[in-house]
Amino acid sequence: MSETRPEVGSKAWLALADESPIDPDRPIIDPHHHLWPSTALRPRYLLADLWGDTQSGHNIEKTVFVETRASYRDNGPEAMRPVGETEFVARIARASREGGGAVISAIVSYVDLRAPKNELRSVLKAHEEAGGGLFRGIRQAGAFEANADFLIIRPRAPAGLYADDAFRSGVAILGELGLSYDTWHYHHQNPDFAELARAVPGTTMVLDHFGTPLGVGPYATQREAIFEQWKRDIAEIAKLPNVVAKIGGLAMPDNGFGWDKREVPASSDELVKEQARYYHHAIECFGPSRCMFESNFPVDRRSLPYSVYWNAMKKIAKRYAADEQHAMFYGTAQCVYRL
Length: 339
Known about the structure:
The protein is an alpha/beta fold. It has one domain: TIM Barrel, CATH 3.20.20. It is built from 10 helices and 8 strands. It has an 8-stranded parallel sheet with strand order 1-2-3-4-5-6-7-8. α3 runs parallel beside α4, α6 packs parallel to α7 and α8 crosses α9.
């Protein structure tokens, strides 16, 4: 009888790509991970699970939680319900300070930035109060795809969000309050994001996941054409000084590298071979002081282990000077999220 293949993303499956950590003492801030209780659509990822990853061989000192529309309040005003996620993560962050593992040091929450100004300010104040000193900004993703049936991670934004006047007003309020704006979207929306960043120069904007070059569905056969256009778009975005880049998150199933469909996870060498060109182009355009490596776990866990991801980043980073490496692994995140 043949053995059953371990489930993709499971500990047994991830163990098939075990690697010894490279440069294990290097201090790292992971500026992008999620937390959520178990649901019918995704398995639990809480503090013990996070620490299982962050303690897998690399020196992850601090982390930044980024919203995932989970653990909202069940009642009360609709606009205030996302504050429940901040409350949920703040409790976990307190526990992280007492347990000896990586410390959750900042929270990026959700609010609909199109809300009326007084309502928006009230929700932001509630996030601040709930965050226990950790609330740093908002992510309201702009990802939109007209026919998204082929995507595993479904987008939720309406068409044209970045051009919406009320939305732009909300993003501007973030800057007035010293808060940052995180977003993720698809490669074909990069020009729209550039227009948003030009229109709201007073707000620090964090571009997640390279602007998510898609590689599945109708985009599966267009990788090279998409890459060439993506390079041009990233170069334009990088001209805007209020934008910084999270470089990572390319191992999602929708990126189309297919590692989530394999018998074994990707190795660090495979990630470098397939994706280093994205990293080097972004670093060349933005400069290391405006780039930060991000794990995007547990989403990218469907492709490779946490320790393997950081090995790959260290292989990619080795061509850069020591201070540039420190910026991408630690300093940029420390500055942007005021850690």
